[in-house]
Automatic annotation (TrEMBL):
<feature type="domain" description="KIB1-4 beta-propeller">
    <location>
        <begin position="73"/>
        <end position="236"/>
    </location>
</feature>
<protein>
    <submittedName>
        <fullName>Uncharacterized protein LOC110744588 isoform X1</fullName>
    </submittedName>
</protein>
<dbReference type="InterPro" id="IPR005174">
    <property type="entry name" value="KIB1-4_b-propeller"/>
</dbReference>
<dbReference type="Pfam" id="PF03478">
    <property type="entry name" value="Beta-prop_KIB1-4"/>
</dbReference>
<dbReference type="InterPro" id="IPR050942">
    <property type="entry name" value="F-box_BR-signaling"/>
</dbReference>
């Protein structure tokens, strides 16, 4: 007798969804049949919380065709021939399954890479355009002239705290930018402009969010922490001074709420 996979009880299918680690497996689950798709759709908000955890990475691999990339699934050790198109774009970050791009006018764009597959229609909400960052200063140092010509280097790193579609209310876009590696953030569902950290906090090389707190490491190995409030951000506190020895390195972990040398 044939198995009725489409007729499995919802609680069993919910249990299967809870055990899907990779986002690609969740996508495969959702297209098996109509009943499975319905369960996947019902679990989208729960899935958004799971995306807050570390996900198995997928690597983008350039092809022989300019501006075209394939994805490498590390769990299956397979290259997916999807032919993603990002012509003349420089990535300044990737997070929660989205690619983050710095634009010519110093604006930030979020792209769902799977929506850029050759031969497929672009999905709704697959591109999110954010406002421009503050322009570089027009001073004798020539920062404005340099970054106007080389705008792709203005944003050094960028990250997201949540999926911008499935969990927009919890999503903050955080960027490290400019000549002095300052930091700015934007609350996706609330803000129309960027909020900038104090200019004295500069030389930032890494930032992570752990249990609703932000931790920042600068070039001198100092660690600062602050909270995002409803209006702006809390006072920035230095919680660890830098090391004298250049051979020491601070590692920041997203999965554990602690630091290690």
């Amino acid at each position: 007798m044939d198995s009725d996979w489409a007729g499995l009880p919802q609680h069993l299918l919910d249990s299967v969804v809870d055990r899907l680690v990779a986002q690609l497996d969740f996508a495969r689950f959702s297209i098996v049949c109509m009943s499975w798709h319905s369960v996947a759709k019902h679990n989208q908000s729960h899935r958004a919380k799971l995306l807050g955890r570390d996900q198995p990475p997928m690597l983008m691999i350039s092809t022989d065709q300019e501006g075209t990339w394939n994805l490498c699934n590390l769990m299956d050790e397979k290259v997916l021939d999807l032919q993603l198109n990002f012509l003349n774009k420089r990535f300044c970050g990737s997070s929660k399954g989205w690619v983050i791009i710095g634009e010519e006018n110093f604006a930030i764009t979020l792209l769902d890479p799977l929506s850029r597959t050759k031969g497929k229609e672009e999905k709704e909400n697959s591109i999110i355009r954010l406002p421009p960052l503050i322009s570089p200063p027009d001073d004798e140092g020539g920062a404005l002239k340099f970054f106007t010509k080389h705008y792709e280097y203005y944003v050094k790193k960028a990250t997201l705290t949540a999926d911008p579609i499935l969990n927009a209310n919890e999503c903050l876009v955080v960027v490290i930018f400019g000549y002095f590696s300052n930091m700015a953030f934007l609350r996706l569902s609330k803000d129309t402009t960027w909020t900038y950290l104090d200019k004295e906090v500069k030389g930032i090389c890494e930032v992570v969010c752990i249990e609703n707190k932000f931790y920042v490491v600068d070039h001198w190995s100092r660690i600062f922490t602050f909270d995002i409030t409803t209006q702006s951000y809390s006072d920035i506190k230095c919680v660890a001074e830098g090391f004298q020895s250049e051979t020491k390195m601070i590692c920041m972990s997203r999965s554990k709420s602690k630091f290690s040398n």
